[in-house]
Fold this sequence. Notes:
Elements (H helix, E strand, L loop, with lengths): L7 E7 L4 H14 L4 E8 L7 E7 L2 E8 L4 E8 L2 H13 L4 E7 L1
Antiparallel strand pairs: 1-5, 1-6, 2-3, 3-4, 4-5
Amino acid sequence: MQIKPEHWYCGFRTKEIDSEKLNEIFEQVLLDAKITIVGSHVCNYEGGGDGFTLIFFLGESHLAITVYPECGETFIELSCCNQEMFDNFVAIVRSRNLGYGLVFSKV
Length: 107
């Protein structure tokens, strides 16, 4: 019998564009949601703006934070294979008013 993997996805926006604040805020959200952080990496873009992407590599998938400073906005996406941890993350984001335009789905 083959097990079919399940993933839950959410995406939302925030007006915060400071890399250190975003790293601090979302590292804590992941820890509070009991999601396993394996590592992280920042990719700075050159020649097309001052944006960057911060990726948290998770034991349960990944969190990507892409900053568009020229627009004053950040887009955050979580992909997670553990529904309980995913639900915890979404609840924390909502309770702390960390973003807007939250969309989510099971894929």
